Amino acid sequence: MRLATYNVEWFANLFDDQNQLEMTGNWSARYKVTKREQAEALGVVFGAMNADAILIVEAPDTNGKRKTVPALENFAAHFGMRAREAIMGFMNDTQQEIALLYDPDVISAKHAPQAGTTDVPRFDGKFEIDLDIDATRDQVMFSKPPLELQVTTKSGTSLHLIGAHLKSKAPHGARNEAHAMKLAIANRRKQLAQAIWLRARIDQHLLQGTSLMVMGDLNDGPGLDEFEDLFGRSSVEIVMKGQAGNLYDPHADRALNTRFGVAPTSARFWIRPEKRYLQALLDYIMVSPDLRTRGSVWRIWHPLDDPECWANAQLRDALVAASDHFPVTIDLDI
Q: Which pTM value belongs to this model?
């Protein structure tokens, strides 16, 4: 069975208020890529992956007019995908939902938010933590509450899946460089608090012996920015490692142990002032120890680094046009 995580840049912009694909020549949110070109590129990528379930990060939004689930199911129907049913959890107000597209013939999925406790609230609640070491507990909320699903495969394997999209806001409204740094540090603290909250939920599951998969865009990685030295650990390290045991992702593990070598990457961004691309490892599929032993094989569908993607010109071009992130998949015997 193949599961995937895929951050589709501004997927919402490809749909109208009737949740239908806009296959037009108008510009998408991708630079010099039309809505038709991005949609068709996504069709090629999803077809090539042929995954049984795909966590969509930055899924089409749910608001007063539009709905995530019918938009994704219309997309799947348009391209004849096996993964044709969609499910989401708590909606947010960022125009970027978290949802799962899956093949109902091989898996079932239901929204399964865990009952909150004082120390580990539900993901749509508020988490209390001292962010700035002033002996006062601050309240932290997810701008995009993680999606918690109970997944059961046709063979009877049951697992808990958590889809996450951690975010550290840009220092908007900064008055000067010093103020921008102050805001950036405060926002970074909030992101790390979200990672601590997520890790607390992971510890609960591992202590119960739950088969667990955590996937999505953590917007962070070892050695990614200057704040790592300030705070000691990245969000990825916090989520992967804890008192109840560790999760495993080979790409994250390699990056954590490769300070000066070449690390895997899953996203590619144009840095306008420097006139170059920045590549980073932001997308992960982390699994509990029992799932790791189930014939697990990970893959980043990077058009420049993966030999099969590079050799297939149509797929290579589609991956570049579809999003600034590339899919990550795991194959499991479940």
A: 0.92
